[in-house]
Amino acid sequence: MLGHCVLSGLAHLSGNSATVAFQLLTIVWMEQPPLIIDIRDILRATTIDQMRDVYIVQCLMETDLYKLLKTQRLSNDHICYFLYQILRGLKYIHSANVLHRDLKPSNLLLNTTCDLKACVASTEPKGPMPLSPIRATGLRCCLMTICDFGLARVADPDHDHTGFLTEYVATRWYRAPEIMLNSKGYTKSIDIWSVGCILAEMLSNRPIFPGKHYLDQLNHILGVLGSPTQEDLECIINEKARSYLQSLPFKPKVPWTKLFPNADPKALDLLDKMLTFNPHNRIGVEDALAHPYLEQYYDPADEPVSEEPFRFIMELDDLPKETLKKYIFEETVLFKEKYLEQPRM
């Protein structure tokens, strides 16, 4: 730990770690908008031949949402504010044509002034923290950022990325049903599903779909949402998966008010729009931000978007390790040139 910063290992540059490191640098860190964890430095050897590992220096955050939900209940004000910050960050990520693919409470870091940041779990935040009242902390001084892009992929409409889109995405409990049923060709709506699961967890302090394995996860989802409609089934391109769902006995939808009897009705309305089985009917991030539940915080002028969407012209998974290493070294050089010369607050 360095003052108010923390040192984290990004990757040992071998195997899949090199691919992950390059994704992180190109998708997120090179732009450094306010919504991304504040990277203070990137440490590596001075020459490419000597470079074996890459480390980052980033701002310290004391705990995370997962640990917070283990120790205390959130007020509706906190739930509303945290949800807005998550969606505000996701709006930037999606505007850059990026799928995060691993949003979950343990990747959302909190500091003692009630800031919320989504970040790399390797920072190992320490223990629970008391929540101060939202209105007393000053909302606009609370910054939310998103990181941990090890599973992120660019959703470039001009390029076929189906080789990247596998079912091995996201922690199971926050995984959208289409990932398990189709595995390829999914969209930004998978991140909205994850945010919906996080919202449900903030409302109850427990995961809404705690499946033990693939089929159990689907059963948990159907046990709440009910059996998929014919329209829902038509969006499933995997014939075996569609046949399996059709073979299951009918299940009615459980009212959200039964699961969360004390929740704000507006929160439940937004939850219903996020946790929609059919991804084509799932609410988008901009519409979610504009939902009445978030009205007190909604400010499109204060919701940054990417100036230029990311596009990959290569299949990273197929690149030789030495080529990836070269790209990583070049990205770290650009980072130092672009950011370390700028004055820091």
TrEMBL record:
Keywords: ATP-binding, Kinase, Nucleotide-binding, Serine/threonine-protein kinase, Transferase. The keyword ATP-binding applies. It comes from the Eukaryota. InterPro entries: Kinase-like_dom_sf (IPR011009), MAPK (IPR050117), Prot_kinase_dom (IPR000719), Ser/Thr_kinase_AS (IPR008271). The keyword Zinc does not apply. This is Protein kinase domain-containing protein. GO terms for molecular function: ATP binding; protein serine/threonine kinase activity. It comes from Timema shepardi. Residues 1-294 form the Protein kinase domain. The lineage of its organism: Eukaryota, Metazoa, Ecdysozoa, Arthropoda, Hexapoda.
